[in-house]
Amino acid sequence: MRAIQITEFGGPEVLTLTELPDPVAEPGLVLVDVTRAGVNYADTHQADNSYLSAAELPLVPGGEIAGTVDGRRVVALTAGSGGYAEKALALAGAIYDIPDGVDDTTALGLIVQGATAWVMLRKSVHLEPGESVVVHAAAGGVGTLAVQLAKALGAGRVIATASTEEKRELALSLGADVALDPAVPELRKALIEANEGRRVDVVLEMTGGTVTDQSLAALAPFGRLAFYGMASREQPSPISAPSLLRHSTAVIGMWLPHVFTLPGDVMRDAMTELFDLAASGRLKVIDGGAYPLAEARAAHEALRSRQTTGKLCLIAAAPPRR
């Protein structure tokens, strides 16, 4: 099979198209004929070995795939890698049938990015009706879905941030009440002004650095900041417990794999609601572009340069045999 393999850590240049043996299913894993593989920001961290879990070489990146199993259309999670290929092994407990009327790109947008937004709003910050929500990187894969989900779950005011006018217009078209440039000189003040002079209740943050610092400073008493990434690769300032106590605020980290440690099947609950919203037209996955498998480097370059919006995919289906 064709696959993208990494034999040394680095930037997009380390992603190499190669031929590898087909993977063989083992207990707990299911072989999927891949049609599309999702591209996530976490994959760029995996490539340079800056992800939360250390990677081992050689490596085929990719944590999410859409494809077929015995003729069924499915979307699935891998065991953390292996998705950038024509065939991949999926976790048996993380395979979901794609409903009629939902395409592969939409399904891929929901299984990691949609579920991330859902878990943060439902489980991490426990969004209450009428609360204000700040969504940073609102034109990205998680951000575009978080804006829509926050509205669907009853948020009173959604404040989006994005780096270009075009991206801010996209966030507004998805339901954000106001959209800001996160690079404004006083982001804390801008967020409060965007919330009609009130401190904000919830922040979904994956940028890092001063964006995290300024967002935390903008929280209202009992406000919550959910931190789920660090796209700038810049550490925010250290957070002191006395400061959280002084302002009655909370900072919650969220890494999606931990959902599988919870009682019940929270991930299936998330996917059921997300599929229902998508099938009814109330939740839209923005198609950020589909790259041929051989052009995985270009997909990573675009993602790292923050040129993209919505969901990026690799077309992994094998070409017709002649």
Describe, in plain words, how this protein is organized in 3D.
The chain has helices at 41-47, 104-124, 141-152, 165-173, 187-194, 209-217, 241-247, 266-279, 296-304; strands at 2-5, 16-19, 29-39, 64-69, 72-78, 87-97, 132-135, 157-161, 178-180, 200-205, 219-227, 250-253, 287-292, 311-315. It is of the alpha/beta class and 322 residues long. The protein folds into two domains: 2-97 and 286-315, Alpha-Beta Complex (Quinone Oxidoreductase, Chain A, domain 1); 113-258, NAD(P)-binding Rossmann-like Domain (Rossmann fold), CATH 3.40.50. The strands form three sheets. Strands 3, 4, 5, 6, 13 and 14 form a six-stranded mixed β-sheet that branches. Strand 7, helix 3 and strand 8 form a beta-alpha-beta unit. Helix 2 (104-124) packs across helix 3. The two termini are 16 Å apart. Mean pLDDT is 94; it is low at 318-322.
